[in-house]
Amino acid sequence: MRAAVLHEIGQDKLEVLDDVEAVGFGPGKVRIRIRATGLCHSDVSAMSGVLPQPAPFVPGHEGAGEILDVGDGVTGLSVGQRVLLCWLPACGACPACKRGQTQLCLAGFMNAGTPNFRRSGGASAAASANASADVFGFAGTGTFAEEVVVDAGCAVPIPDDVPFDIAALIGCGVTTGLGAAINTAQVEAGSSVAVIGCGGVGISAIQGARLQGAAQIVAVDPVGSRREAALRFGATEAVAPDALADAKQRITGGEGFDYVFEVVGKSATARTAYETTRRGGTLCVVGAGALDDFLQLNMFELFFDEKRILPSMYGGGDVLRSYERTIALWRAGRIDLASLITHRVPLAGINDALEQMRTGAALRTCIEI
């Protein structure tokens, strides 16, 4: 089958190979035919080494498709069923799950250390200097492939009226952004909000803040097209980063915003977000950053400002409930998911999708497989 593979961490392009097979099928597993997958910034971060991931690997973790086969012991799933992929399934038994913080379950991360794929050793593999038999899947999935084998808990059934491309977005970016505003920050009606970083996740945070009744929502992004998009999705104002200080002064009288969402994953923007948050306000950190990128705060400001710093992992709540809520809001026309998909490419055009993300041209690119 075909899959897009990164041979070494640090490479900026993927190679689409036709000699890859999904491995590991057996009890407790399902085999899924991927129909649509989104390109998330976390995929790019894993390629560059910002997020830890063994290589070679198949990126992609935001996908949807149909079940091809069901292993022994799997209940509630059947061949032909439409599913989205949950890259962080809850085990239900660990301390985090028992506390109701299923988004903090570590069981899913353990899958990242086991190869999901294997190259068959055909002619193309033998000819490649980068050929390696075992291939990992990013975040234990690897949806930039025609098929994947995953734990049954990763396969979440979706209703027939939810298209594969919409379901794929719900599998990560939309759930993360909406959940940050609704679950983690719990934005209050009438409040002021700033969102720094307006890709697919940031736009979803904007939609979440709008749903919660925020009075002012300022979108902050260096890319003009993303600022324009943010206004269509519910932002009341959109500014470039160098105009954020002026917006803070005009809108809040210099006090700072009630809620600021950092959706970039860098200490520099997190520091800006902290300084843009009012005393007693909430900074919500949504962006996934590097292990060696440190945010510096002095102990006096930490005490004196009494600002709440709330990281948000995968939307900060039970993801299965979040999926259901998102589908209900989408059906009711309360959120716009279709317009998040600004570009579509086949798997063969995956490097075009990477360029669209790196330049900021795309909110979300759907890879149709």
Question: What do these coordinates show?
Answer:
It is built from 13 helices and 19 strands. Helix 6 (173-184) runs parallel beside helix 7 (200-211) and helix 6 (173-184) packs across helix 12 (319-331). It is an alpha/beta fold and 369 residues long. The longest helix is centred in the last third of the chain and has 13 residues, at 319-331. Helix 8 links the parallel strand 13 (216-220) and strand 14. It has helices at residues 41-48, 95-98, 107-110, 123-127, 164-170, 173-184, 200-211, 224-232, 244-252, 267-276, 299-305, 319-331, 350-359; strands at 3-5, 15-17, 20-22, 29-38, 57-58, 62-70, 82-85, 117-119, 134-137, 147-151, 155-157, 192-196, 216-220, 237-239, 257-262, 277-285, 308-311, 341-346, 364-368. Strands 4, 6, 7, 10, 11, 18 and 19 form a seven-stranded mixed sheet that branches. Strands 14-13-12-15-16-17 form a six-stranded parallel sheet, with helices on both faces. It has a four-stranded mixed sheet with strand order 3-8-9-5, with no helix packed on it. 30% of the residues lie in helices and 25% in strands.
